[in-house]
Amino acid sequence: QVQLVESGGGLVQAGGSLRLSCEASDFIVGSYVMGWFRQAPGKEREFVATIMWSAGSTDYADSVKGRFTISRDIVQKTVHLQMNSLKPEDTAVYYCAAGPSRWRIRSWGQGTQVTVSS
To answer: Which of 78, 86, 92, 106 could form a disulfide with 40 if both were Cys (CB 3.0 to 4.6 A apart)?
Structure first.
């Protein structure tokens, strides 16, 4: 099972930007997706964005469309999440994930905290 390690979380003011990164320890199956989920205090984990590892097609939650951009570097086995125009409601622990689809995640990262102050 591939190991995923996130980095890049932190504290930012509303309207600011952060870039999350996730490095995979091993080869990612071409048909897999890699992406990001988040969990705010007292809430269930929710989908944020995914990218097809080989094709590069992307999918976003409605709440982040137009503000977040997911990308991947196949050689570095890394996926990034550029988060712009951050809002306090984006505050959560963000988890990197990999699997056959966003509904069938096989590997999770340990999570990185993102806090957006108003």
So the answer is: 92
